[in-house]
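Progress report, Aim 2. The chain analyzed during this reporting quarter is listed below.
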Amino acid sequence: IRRLLDILHGASGGKDELPPPVASYLGIVQSFQDPQSTANCMLIYPGSPMLAASVLMNQQGSIPHHSMRLYDKAPAQLEMLKTHLTAFMSQNTNVTTTMEMNLLCDHGYTAWARYAQSTSPLPPGSLILIDPPYQYGSDTEQIAKLCQHLRTHWRSARIAIWHPLRPDHADTLQRLYSMLKTSHDDKQEILAIEVYAPLVEMD
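Predicted structure tokens for the chain:
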């Protein structure tokens, strides 16, 4: 992230080569940094819930109201998330979009599956983001199982899966790709996007 932010600021060159979605993402990350911070300061990374809330609250369009449904099975982490989201929303009183948030202490994989079975189809434009910590060996299998379940009960759902691009996760990532391709409907598309920060040669 630090190398990409350097490119965004023009410190490493290649600023114009950043794809617009990546530049927009980095702009959000930058908005959470202390304006007085230096390159040696610790980078503040907002995390997926804050990134999503920032995107939704600053959308300009015909949708005056957005909602988010967030799951975390760790009570302490959920309380911390509530605190940060409440503070973030209170600081953005000048936006025209209202936001409804439901934060629930539950296992995301099974909770989303239950919710999909008990709820009417998702509103148009809905996105389900699966962003696990990948601390457990079963994460890959649970992601594939949930995606298959959602395709059965919410066929119109758009699903985004975050996965780290690290050498020690390469086999896991390929296994996830394989499981998603095997279980997906030919009429449904799978788009894989991998973003790497270019290596910068230092003098």
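The chain has seven helices and four strands. The first strand starts at residue 65 and ends at 71. These observations will guide the mutagenesis work planned for the next reporting period.
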